[in-house]
TrEMBL record:
PROSITE patterns: WD_REPEATS_1, WD_REPEATS_2. It comes from Carya illinoinensis. InterPro entries: PAK1-Kinase_Regulator (IPR051959), WD40_repeat_CS (IPR019775), WD40_rpt (IPR001680). Signal peptide: none annotated. PANTHER family: P21-ACTIVATED PROTEIN KINASE-INTERACTING PROTEIN 1, PAK1 INTERACTING PROTEIN 1. Keywords: WD repeat. This is P21-activated protein kinase-interacting protein 1-like. Pfam families: WD40 (PF00400).
Length: 340
């Protein structure tokens, strides 16, 4: 497993999570260097690929196993605000990279090789966040224009837009794609994906702003922010399942679920969640312990920089795409443009 983090100081940080003295783990540095010309605003990982976007309008690409730099993409003309890879459920290999920027644009890239397929502008102001549906056919975006937009990624166009009346800072699909979560300051709305109907609203008990969210298994949503804690919400009941109080000494800027249930998982395996704070500290937790008492972190690294974002990826296996694998291809977008 690996973690990648970006900072205000232009630095990109890469770590590999390795076993240490049971039950502890150790975060081994993979790389650390100033990859951007200005602050890094967003990072994403999938399989052995990682990407970072910054306020220098560029996207940089990395190979995690070899800790090498792959190149950069210069298709945006404003600061990057969000990055997200899409991969088929049975693959660790990314098929597409979707990015959003401060000028309201969203770009769709093929990941093999990394080439721009289509750029669209679903918002009049900056895009705050985007989330790709597990099917890879659509995505949701929220922006500073106080709108929620749905994007058809196959056709490369906006298919729906509604005004919220308030600015949402984040949007995330759950793991199954049946629901999505929308963050508005200290509140999180749980919505039905089919019709965007509000099912319930999660409110931070301390009325502090939520700055990062990560969906987990069985309808659990992990959040962090100005309260410096990691809160696990049961989104089916709308109540707090458990909480790691004072997980950091400063506000959280990123939370990542590292463990996903699969056929090889054991009930005794730890359920790992990583978190990063604005004071530069990255910690890895076994959140099962939080149900009983406040756990101690299994691993910790101090970058001594002002971290802005965090992403994680499992490096257990890499399945290359087979002949039947499906992605958003340039031919599909060209054919749609000719027919419209």
């Amino acid at each position: 497993m690996s973690l990648i983090a970006g900072s205000y100081e232009k630095y990109i940080w890469g770590f590999k999570l390795k076993p240490h003295e049971t039950p502890h783990l150790i975060l081994t540095p993979l790389f650390s260097y100033p990859s951007h010309q200005s602050s890094i605003t967003t990072v994403a990982t999938c399989g052995h690929y990682a990407a970072s976007g910054g306020s220098d309008d560029t996207i940089h690409l990395y190979d995690l196993p070899s800790a090498s730099y792959l190149g950069s993409l210069h298709d945006h003309s404003s600061s990057l605000t969000s990055l997200s890879f899409f991969s088929s459920p049975n693959l660790s290999f990314p098929r597409n990279l979707i990015s959003s920027a401060a000028d309201g644009s969203v770009s769709i890239f093929d990941a093999d090789p990394f080439v721009l397929l289509k750029s669209i502008r679903p918002h009049r102001k900056a895009v705050n966040d985007l989330s790709i549906h597990p099917s890879g056919k659509l995505a949701l975006t929220v922006g500073r224009d106080e709108c929620l937009a749905m994007l058809n990624l196959v056709r490369g166009r906006r298919s729906f837009c509604c005004r919220l009346g308030r600015e949402a800072s984040m949007v995330k699909f759950d793991l199954g794609g049946d629901r999505f979560f929308m963050v508005l300051e200290d509140k999180i709305g749980v919505h039905e994906a089919e019709d965007a109907r509000l099912l319930c609203e999660l409110e931070n008990p301390k009325q502090k702003r939520v700055l990062c969210v990560a969906p987990g298994e069985n309808g659990v949503l992990y959040t962090g922010g100005e309260d410096r804690s990691i809160t696990a919400w049961d989104t089916k009941s709308g109540k707090v399942a458990y909480c790691i109080e004072d997980a950091h000494s400063s506000r959280l800027k990123g939370v990542v679920v590292l463990t996903r249930n699969d056929d090889t998982a054991s009930v005794d395996d730890p359920y790992l969640v990583a978190s990063a704070s604005s004071d530069g500290v990255i910690r890895v937790w076994d959140v099962r312990m939080a149900i009983k008492e406040k756990p101690n972190p299994l691993a910790e690294a101090n970058t001594k920089s002002r971290l802005t974002c965090l992403a994680g990826s499992s490096l257990k296996s890499f399945k290359q795409p087979g002949p039947g694998s499906k992605s958003i291809q340039k031919e599909e977008l060209d054919a749609d443009m000719e027919g419209s």
